[in-house]
Amino acid sequence: MNTLQLGKVSSKCQQRGVMTILAALTLTTLIAFLALVVDTGRLYLEKRTLQKNADLAAIETALLYCRDQELDEAGRRAIALDALSASRNNFLGEEGGIIVKLGLVGASTDENGANRKSFTEDNSGKAIQVTLSRTVPASLFESFSFGGNNTVTLSRTAVAQACQPEALITIDSGIVSIDSSQSALLNTVLGGFLGSTVSLSVGEWNGLLTSDINLLSYLDALAIDLGVAVGSYDEVLSTSASLGDFLAVAADVLTADGNIIAANGLQALVLAIPLATPAIQLGELISVQSGAPDVAFDIAISALDLTQASIQLANTKNALVANIPVSLLGVAGATIHLKVLEEPKIYAIGNPEDAKSDPYGSDQIYVRSAQVRSFISLDLPVAGATLSALEALLSNPLVAGVTSSVNSLLALDLAGVLSDLTCLLSCSQEKDITHIQILPTPRLDIAIDIGRAEARVSDYSCADNGDKSLTVPAQSAVAGIAAGTMGTSTADASNNAFSTAGVNVDPLALIDIGSKHIRKRCVLAICTIDYKKGTGWTTNSALADRTAYTGGGIGLKVDTNLLTGTDTLNYYNIPADTFLPNIDQTLDADAFQQLAASDLVAGVSDSLSGIELEFYPPSGAGIGGSNLGEVTTLVGSVADTLLASIDSIITGVLAPILDPLLNDLLDLLGVSLAETNVGSALTCESNKVELVI
């Protein structure tokens, strides 16, 4: 019994010992976790405080150095020390833990391909890097270990810059006002690009033309609408959204600025945008150099340019083609369609120092106009001067020996053509006869590609006396012209003209010397003529089968490119600052220069009116022997007369269309053959400072 009781007492003691050990272990673990949590929070706060001190020191040093660039290394360090003093920001580290460097900020790419900003020490730069170090007690957990290091050194770096040059270039149509006819054109064309009906008033269009939007305010408002953090401008530029969202936010910004008429116009435009309109990105229209400070966004952009460019960008992503009623151009008898092939790049902002080193590289400051294709389908008159000229040629006495009657060939006088057949009381003979068609398809299809005009920054200068300059090589628009036949109908030709495969043009037949197969049957000198139709015969010549170009023919085709004009535009803030303002100022007429290329407009007309004829040799045999080949050769030998007649017809029909199309309509869209308008601005040194790293 006693032995049993002693056993129970011993078991209880063992249990209490185990519980004590478990409690001790649990307490030790809790203390360790507590130490870890406390030290993690403590070190986080230490690092955060250290980073704040580094940021403040870098910002103040960069700003004061911008204002006084004679400061040497000791002077820059003195500014940082003052910013970190106990009376101001109370930096708790040693003075030896403060390193101040002068250098350049550039863009680099990490292993994932993402863009990152980097600092390089360089005395020619204006960026300030401040590195702070401070030694603090190590974690409590580490201090429990025997011989452990009881301190840890924290380090934080900040880079700020000011005084960076910022350049801006823009390209526009140079329109100063919009009248009722122009507003009707804009409504029609932009509505066609959207597949909708647009009906803004003259006042609303002029309101957009005369209103500017602050890009910084616009991006901030757009960030909220897109759910992007305000200030993340690169992300805002690269985020896709609907065209309606972009324009609705622009309307809100205009309303806040008091531009009510322009805002009403945009709101009406938003209501007209179909839901199926493709999403776009603002960065496709406005280019901002990588690494550019936020102050570079503090610029004014044209509300009309933003509106038009956004719609043109959307049109490049859909299959819609704008149908232009020719009555709006004051002409008739034609079909005109437009489509944007490449969107414009209306504004470019960046550091000209970076662009100078490689104007075509990733840091380029580059703008361009849109690339637009115009399709024109003309109905040409069959009778008149062309027919008279051909008849005169084919009845020329010089060819009297070619056939027994060339007039019979033209008029298809079958009795004359077959007069060489000898029939007595009865006979039956078959023969191919000539069948000439003049403009068998009297429709001329024309595609005119207005290629982009472009400009880029290649150099700049900023003198100590305030003089500054910007060098901008520019290239005017180019024109590609194709004319002939592009399809079996106007609709088919239009579809082919705007296909992704490109324009494929066939010659337009002016004269087609073809053939038909006939059968002559005579009974007692009474003769009848039948025409071959399929496997049978018909007495109706219009229904008969016809083989084209068996005797040759004449056609026209144009497929050419016009050379562009290039020049270098040099901007100076002389005779006044308005000729090269700072980028945060509104660009007026003084800030724009023109690259004239009016010869391109004349070149398009000349290419379409100065047509060269193409002669096709006979493709068949046995049709009047060699006579038809000789007729074609004859026409070629005196083609000047025929060519002049055709030129007069095409010029008479085409000129009233080309002039308003090239000089009015495309100018409204910012796609001009006559001239390229490029505006520029340059801020040499902004005293605004920004934390960049």
Give a structural overview:
This protein is α+β, with helices and mostly antiparallel strands and 693 residues long. It has three domains: 2-163, no CATH class; 168-382 and 440-507 and 557-597 and 674-691, no CATH class; 383-438 and 508-556 and 601-673, no CATH class. 36% of the residues lie in helices and 28% in strands. It has 18 helices and 31 strands. It has a six-stranded antiparallel β-sheet with strand order 11-12-15-17-21-26, with helices on both faces. Helix 16 packs antiparallel against helix 18. The radius of gyration is 40 Å and the shape is elongated. Residues 394-422 and 621-632 have low confidence and may be disordered.
The number of helical runs is: 18
Percent helix, as a range, is 25-40%
- The termini sit apart by 82 Å
Radius of gyration: 40 Å
| Number of structural units classed as domains | 3
Instruction: Tell me, briefly, the overall form.
Output: elongated
How many strands, what sense, and barrel or not for the largest sheet? 6 strands, antiparallel
Strand order of the largest sheet: 11-12-15-17-21-26
Unreliable runs = 394-422, 621-632
Mean pLDDT: 79
Structural class: alpha+beta
